Amino acid sequence: MSQRSVAIIGDGKMGQAIRELAQAKGWKVAALIGERESAGGKGITKSALGDADVALEFTEPKAAVANITAALRAGVPVVAGTTGWYEQLPAVTQVANEAGTALLWSPNFSLGVNVLIELARRAGTLMRPLEEFDAHIVETHHAKKKDAPSGTAVAMAQAAGEGLERAIPTTSVRTGSVPGTHELIFDGLYEQLSITHVARDRRVFAEGALAAADWLVGKQGVFTMRDVLNLQRGQ
């Protein structure tokens, strides 16, 4: 198989982590585009992306939609790692479909977190009859993270809430340089059940994002990590 190439949109800590890991895994890094170069999506062209097989977008919510749609319109499939823009997902989905290319979005690319979300879904179903238990989500991230609650916490709350058939509150903590911790708590009068995922290094997100990118090449449509990991509903 020929060497695959990736364009990275976002030169922050995640972008740099992806670049280092991609090179270590034998990918060609066709482009690393920072905020100034992207120019609100105007600088995202097929040429600027280095004619890459796939683009990975890790910037911030206010820039994500313009960057993603520009890459899709350039005919380059996109793995979207930025969160906080999902209210515009229907419009971005339409762009992907009209362009005949592919979008893969996820609030979290950690393989463990995506299993955690499925566990939350199952746990909510099992805990539904136990009305004496309260449910709560606590998520902690570094002080510079823009969105709160995190996209992962929102996905966990939705998954567990489907099972419980009620809404689950979330507490967000922003402090220090924590890569990410998510905890689903079921608290009763005399006992507590919790399911926790702790990210120890940003590399875990880079690993998952590159796995998603490798999976996405050659596909058309809109996907999530559930498709990559074959975590189909009801399994």
Note the topology.
Blueprint: E1 5-9, H1 13-24, E2 28-33, H2 35-38, E3 54-57, H3 61-73, E4 78-80, H4 89-99, E5 102-105, H5 111-127, E6 134-141, H6 151-164, E7 170-174, E8 180-187, E9 192-199, H7 203-216, E10 221-223, H8 225-228
Parallel strand pairs: 1-2, 1-3, 3-4, 4-5, 5-10, 6-7
Antiparallel strand pairs: 6-8, 8-9
Helix pairs in contact: 1-7, 3-4, 5-6
Task: Write a structural description.
By secondary structure, this protein is α/β, with parallel strands linked by helices. The protein has 2 domains: 5-105 and 203-228, NAD(P)-binding Rossmann-like Domain (Rossmann fold); 111-199, Dihydrodipicolinate Reductase, domain 2. Helices cover 38% and strands 23% of the residues. It contains 8 helices and 10 strands. It has helices spanning 13-24, 35-38, 61-73, 89-99, 111-127, 151-164, 203-216, 225-228, and strands at 5-9, 28-33, 54-57, 78-80, 102-105, 134-141, 170-174, 180-187, 192-199, 221-223. The mean pLDDT is 93.
Structural class: alpha/beta
* Uncertain runs: none
Task: State the name of the first-level CATH class of the largest domain.
Answer: Alpha Beta
CATH topology of the largest domain: Rossmann fold
The radius of gyration is 18 Å
Q: Total strand count, please?
A: 10
**SS strand fraction:** 15-25%
Kindly report how far apart the N and C termini lie.
33 Å
> What's the tally of helices?
8
Q: Enumerate the strands of the largest sheet in spatial order, edge to edge or round the barrel.
A: 2-1-3-4-5-10
